[in-house]
């Protein structure tokens, strides 16, 4: 596997080594020792899966301290535009955002450290999105930022901004904008 740094401190892209032949393909989706060797030491305790249709926007979510989560995300089928915002006040990349296309073709993974908001927009007809978390889900710690916060709205494709066919939960529509956020990491 190859580890690729991003413009956000500690946010990493993982490119798996894929073996393919006339039978199909094989690759490791996770192997603790290899990830630890590459600096990803999160102790993952929960796996989640989301099946979403085209035009769905999920996020931008995070859990507040003391239950913040590091995540390892990927798209097993379909294609999403994945967006991450650094919320760590001590980080040199505080309030900066990063986006990447995750899809079944390239099989890239994204390691998202604690203290970052995460969301994705489905570009394909259907997307099977999976992620590992290093902390259990705690409803009382659930939070997020509004997807149209002025610092990040230009990171989305035009169809998200037009909102004509956007599929988004009412809960996500009520999230605070980035400038209104009061929690710290």
Kindly describe this structure:
The chain has 185 residues and is mainly beta. The protein has one domain (2-175): Sandwich (Jelly Rolls), CATH 2.60.120.10. Helix content is 8%, strand content 39%. It contains 3 helices and 13 strands, in the order ββββαβββββββββαα. The protein has helices spanning 32-37, 158-162, 170-173; strands at 2-5, 12-15, 19-21, 24-26, 46-53, 57-63, 71-77, 79-86, 97-103, 109-112, 116-122, 126-133, 142-144. The strands form 3 sheets. Strands 1-2-10-7-12-5 form a 6-stranded antiparallel β-sheet, with no helix packed on it. Strands 9-8-11-6-13 form a 5-stranded antiparallel β-sheet, with no helix packed on it. A two-stranded antiparallel sheet has the order 3-4. The mean pLDDT is 94.
Largest beta sheet, briefly? 6 strands, antiparallel
Overall pLDDT metric: 94
CATH level 4 superfamily: Jelly Rolls
**What is the first-to-last residue Cα distance?**
30 Å
**Side-by-side strand order of the widest sheet:** 1-2-10-7-12-5
The first-level CATH class name: Mainly Beta
For the secondary structure, the number of strands is 13
Give the number of helices.
3
**Low-confidence runs (pLDDT<50, min 5 residues)?**
none
CATH topology: Jelly Rolls
> What is the string of SSEs from the N terminus onward?
EEEEHEEEEEEEEEHH
- Calculate Rg over CA atoms: 16 Å
CATH architecture: Sandwich
Strand content: 35-45%
The total tally of domains equals 1
